[in-house]
Amino acid sequence: xxxxxxxxxxxxxxxxxxxxxxxxxxxxxxxxxxxxxxxxxxxxxxxxxxxxxxxxxxxxxxxxxxxxxxxxxxxxxxxxxxxxxxxxxxxxxxxxxxxxxxxxxxxxxxxxxxxxxxxxxxxxxxxxxxxxxxxxxxxxxxxxxxxxxxxxxxxxxxxxxxxxxxxxxxxxxxxxxxxxxxxxxxxxxxxxxxxxxxxxxxxxxxxxxxxxxxxxxxxxxxxxxxxxxxxxxxxxxxxxxxxxxxxxxxxxxxxxxxxxxxxxxxxxxxxxxxxxxxxxxxxxxxxxxxxxxxxxxxxxxxxxxxxxxxxxxxxxxxxxxxxxxxxxxxxxxxxxxxxxxxxxxxxxxxxxxxxxxxxxxxxxxxxxxx
Length: 370
Hints:
Layout: E1 5-9, H1 13-24, E2 30-34, H2 38-46, H3 58-63, E3 66-69, H4 76-83, E4 92-95, H5 101-110, E5 116-122, E6 143-148, H6 154-166, E7 170-173, H7 176-204, H8 210-214, H9 217-223, H10 230-239, H11 241-264, H12 267-282, E8 296-301, H13 308-317, E9 323-328, E10 339-343, H14 346-358, E11 362-367
Parallel strand pairs: 1-2, 1-3, 3-4, 4-5, 6-7
Antiparallel strand pairs: 5-6, 8-10, 8-11, 9-10
């Protein structure tokens, strides 16, 4: 049987986006939500996304074909325990957490035979958080990893796969341990390194704050992800501790090797280090969306004078362009213009480029989706 009803537990960025995607793209008629923040539930109800103006009750749990847990990763297991007594036979329980092995092992010990748990991880998101940042198109062309549990059945897996495809994502079936290893390397470690780099600059900065003032494009690009929720990333690191400890040791060895080459003046090895990285980076797929959320930026080459930001903001706003952020780039090493405009999609970026060029502006683009 197809999935016709869904319960979203945790209506933040991902939970809210899933609710909207299930409503507007998958066409589900019955969507309920649970969240400790009543304002999120009310906002979703007022927008017609969910069917109830208050948090879902036990009756809604029992009516749901699929229950998607969108809480912080360390709260997922407790949430499963709370809802299990009220789940109907044949229901699929899934989550959206960034780590899987420990959770899958613990859930397998408490799951009754009439309920199926399939781990889920949409490789989409944003450095922002909260329902007000949610969007129905955030999962379009994004990989959505599924890690089936030991008691799953192929029919349930197929039902979940179809609903994921309906919201525009690309499902990938993966072993939980392999998932944690890969995401540890390409997502969790980069967040650790980003935080470490920022903390190093902060700790060694001058009293005048030269490091903060002069931080330009490259530094901002690789540390953008540090704007994410510290609570979420603390929990992710704890839940993937064993994998991360091994990965961090590997990275320390990589730095030690580079340090030795630099100390000994081995320029040929330093060149190969950067050249190998460049070659591999250039082979990365431009699509679908990866774990680190894409950003789309336009750099406008304009004279820095009063009224420029307002004029451009008004021009784009009149054409339905939603600007995420706009401002003057004070430190422009490696940057071609002085005004930075951040947008939320490739489509909006291309539309903005056309509008600005048609009005005589010189435009450069930046994004991390390549």
